[in-house]
Design goal:
This protein is α+β, with helices and mostly antiparallel strands. The chain has helices at residues 3-26, 33-46, 108-124, 131-144, 219-232, 239-245, 250-262; strands spanning 50-51, 56-59, 62-64, 81-90, 93-102, 148-149, 154-159, 162-170, 185-188, 191-193, 200-210, 237-238, 266-273, 280-282, 285-290, 293-296. A hairpin with a 2-residue loop joins β4 and β5 (93-102).
């Protein structure tokens, strides 16, 4: 990696860490999740970055991909266990992170299990190590504390304007022999649960991503596609961002989104859920591997 790339990654990491600290101060039982999401994402921009994806605020058995809809009145309930997943990019270079807040004060052991699994994985991460070995360490740490890793969620590589690239960093021992190589940036993110250790897709989706630009028949779809390409490139975005920033009617937006989905120009990220009544915790950081050194962004 050149110095400018590393500098951009480091700046993204600094902003992410500051926004994590702000989140811990601001998020309270009864907080409106829409207002909180907008505040944190605005803080990212004010600090000189841009959201690498919409902030994820997944609660209890929801493991990932919840972000509030436009002007949603959803609030943080009592006894919530919430995963705060924040991504920041600076000129396309991404720091990806997550932490868990336990407002119930009943699941501190599970929160610590995901944190300990992350630290154990980070401690062994280096150029040349097999990604399956990292997964093995994460799984052993979580199971050793009496919980289960979520087997069908994993960490991942990050690249310029791309929040999810190879290699996948598993949360179990997959015997994957691919190795960490010089020049990689990876996000390690253990998910821990008292459930089965598998998530399924829900019906709700508020997060989308551009897949391919194609000719559109409808004027609404053309306008939205142009806006997505210019503002988010290939990074995930929230539908609420479109509602907030584009000067089109709700009807036009829905018509345009429908055509974009039908033509497979954009893809949706549905909620990912464990069984109802179970709890999921998450911890995540991003590492750079450069000329034999490991650089932790936050």
């Amino acid at each position: 990696m050149d110095k400018e790339t590393i500098s951009n990654y480091r700046k993204a990491g600094e902003i992410t860490k500051e926004c994590q600290e702000l989140s811990r101060k601001k998020l309270k039982v009864g907080s409106t999740l829409y207002g909180f999401a907008e505040e944190i994402e605005s803080a990212i921009i004010k600090k000189g970055g841009f959201p690498a994806f919409p902030i994820n605020l997944s609660i209890n058995h929801v493991a990932a991909h919840y972000t509030p809809s436009f002007e949603s009145e959803d609030i943080l309930p009592e006894d919530a266990v919430i995963k705060v997943d924040i991504g920041v990019h600076v000129d396309g270079f991404i720091a990806d992170s997550a932490f868990t807040m336990d407002f119930s004060e009943k699941h501190s052991a599970m929160v610590k299990a995901s944190e300990d699994a992350l630290e154990a994985a980070v401690a062994m991460a280096k150029e040349g190590i097999e990604v399956g070995k990292i997964g093995e360490k994460i799984e052993a740490t979580i199971r050793g504390k009496g919980f289960s890793p979520i087997q069908n969620l994993s960490g991942h590589g990050v690249d310029e304007y791309d929040a999810h690239v190879a290699p996948s960093i598993p949360n179990i021992n997959t015997h994957d022999t691919r190795t960490i190589e010089d020049g990689m940036a990876i996000a390690i993110e253990p998910f821990c649960t008292d459930g089965k250790g598998f998530v399924r897709e829900g019906n709700q989706a508020e997060i989308f991503q551009l897949v391919e630009e194609k000719p559109m028949r409808g004027a609404e779809a053309r306008k939205i596609l142009e806006f997505i390409s210019e503002n988010y490139s290939t990074l995930p975005f929230a539908e609420r961002w479109i509602q907030r920033d584009m000067k089109i009617s709700e009807f036009a937006r829905k018509v345009g989104f429908r055509e974009l989905m039908q033509k497979k120009c954009i893809t949706a990220f549905p909620l990912l859920k464990e069984d109802e009544g179970r709890i999921v915790t998450q911890s995540e950081t991003t590492l750079l591997f450069n000329e034999g050194k490991v650089i932790r962004l936050l």
